[in-house]
Amino acid sequence: MNYSDFIFWWILILFSVPFLTARYIAKSFNLWRGVFDGVGLAALSLILFYYASRTSFLVFIVSLAFNYIMVWLVLKMSGWKANLLATIVIVIDILVLAYFKYFGFFVQEIIGLFVSLPPNWKELSPIPVPSQIPPGVSFYSFQMVAFVVDSLREKKKKPLAVLDYVNFISFFPQIVAGPIERRRDLLPQMEGFRLKFTGENFEEGLRWLSLGLFMKFVLADNLAPYIQLDKMIDNAWYIWFEAFLFTLRIYFDFGGYSFIAVGLAYFVGVRLELNFLAPYTSQSIHEFWRRWHITLSTWFRDYVFLPLMGSNKNWVPFYLFMTFTLSGFWHGAAWNFIFWGAYHGGLSLLLRYLGRPFYAFVGKYVFQPQIVSWALTQLAVIFGCLFFMEINTRRLIGKMLIIANPFNYSLANIGEIFSSYSLNQGAVLSVALVLGIIVLILEHLAVAQKKFEYELLLSPWLSKILLGLTILLASTNTSDFIYFEF
Q1: Is 151 helix (H, G, I), strand (E, B) or coil?
Q2: What is the longest distance spanned by two Cα atoms in the chain?
Q3: Backbone angles phi, psi at 129, to 5 degrees
Q4: Is 370's pLDDT higher than 70?
Q5: What gap in Å lies between CA 174 and CA 185, rounded to an integer?
Q6: Catalytic sites, residue numbers
Q7: In whole angstroms, how far apart are CA 14 and each of 4, 27, 379?
Q8: Residues 464 and 159 sit within 8 Å (Cβ to Cβ)
Q9: Fewest CB atoms within 10 Å of the CB: 287, 305, 457, 468?
Q10: Residues 326-337: tens digit of each pLDDT
């Protein structure tokens, strides 16, 4: 859901208050039935999704109904029949995602390489070209695919209630931008759902909500105006600085969304998987991907990489590279996302074969080699963000050429970065950077003390401070969450 849209919060309040009131009164007279909790959750989730995107609601409902019927049939079958039907469902789910997200890219960028397309090819196309990507389709399609596979693998197959499945797929905190939940984790919480609106859940949820709101509306949204994605920059230092800002912004933006989702889920007694675990504390690219967008990384590991590899380990490097490239392409129908995925795949292979000799060499000459490892990892991530943030391929190549030229790094160019800001702009940027760095330091301290990565940030006293700072410093120019585009 779009937490930056006040309509979301109004609908949430206008639905929840009467529902909870009616629930309390009905329970007082012993008129409330447990199933009403599940019905209420499904109704709230579907209403919120409808108002988030009415044009995409029909696509979601059709996918939801189709997948439920097919999974119900798969659970009734066994052997090759179940495998065949599951394969058909997965192919259809992927084709639906591919049509809405990649059809235009495939025609224009792939077919266009071999055939000259007229400017109005979209109007002439016999197949309608989607004008926009339905919100959440990348996330709920993957969750549906995972559910089909996991259902097929179930040893004890039991009937699947339609209400449980609807709540599993449409659960409002995570339907649009994850986390991508698994059957084993979320479905047991949705089976015979009962609302657990307790003081403990409310307190825990409020801590996550405070952290998420602060990261999104104070940090990410205040950094966003300083990242210019639609113009060419000929200052090498400026390119690096923007990439650094984008690296911070995308974590605070997507991490903020994920933590808001976790907090809202806590309010109703549901535990969602964490999508992030302080990724900028990582000392290697491998560790980074164990901490960054965790549910997507594990999805590609379990449903792409491992099935491809099977028992043939000779092709592991190729499968690893392809998995990373596909995960990059999942983020968007543009070449830069393919380059970004391939870049991280290449880094993983480089680390796989040269990591140990390199770290052994560094360890001989550096007192704290882990600091070098951390710095190199962050530099690699920041450089990778140049691919992620720049959709225009020509501008991307131009920026790469500029930062590759050692003569473009002058002291005068450093001053040029900050001279372009007004006093107010400089103040806002400085405050956002200082607060963001404090957040990262607290994550590092927790990791260094071998605590849970967000233990310090979730402390009761700090949560109150973060909530207060959000009220005082939230950006007036709120932006949609970056991952809504995916």
Answers
A1: helix
A2: 79
A3: -95, 120
A4: yes
A5: 14
A6: 331
A7: 17, 20, 46
A8: no
A9: 468
A10: 999 999 889 999
